Amino acid sequence: MPYKKGESGNPAGRPVGSTNAVTVQRANLNKLLLESGEEIVKVVIETAKAGDLSASKLVLERILPALKSSELKVSGTVNIEADLLARADEKLINRLTYEHCAE
Prior knowledge:
By secondary structure, the chain is an all-alpha fold.
């Protein structure tokens, strides 16, 4: 039997206004970061300077985020030299061949 508009399918369900455990944890983490964030960042940077590779990785990932690949659209005739093809990745060659044959 379908429910009427505005009627709950589980009237004894979760109380209105209750919070999820993850929401509470996020709020606590945000509070900690607001109170101690600058100090934590300084410690991580100093640890990275001292040679800790994990800290260095963390700092660099925040400063220089990973580059995302992008698609290159080519229209018209494309001349590819044999030596370039020999050095190119097999997936790229397969893709170029497939797209050229699909036209």
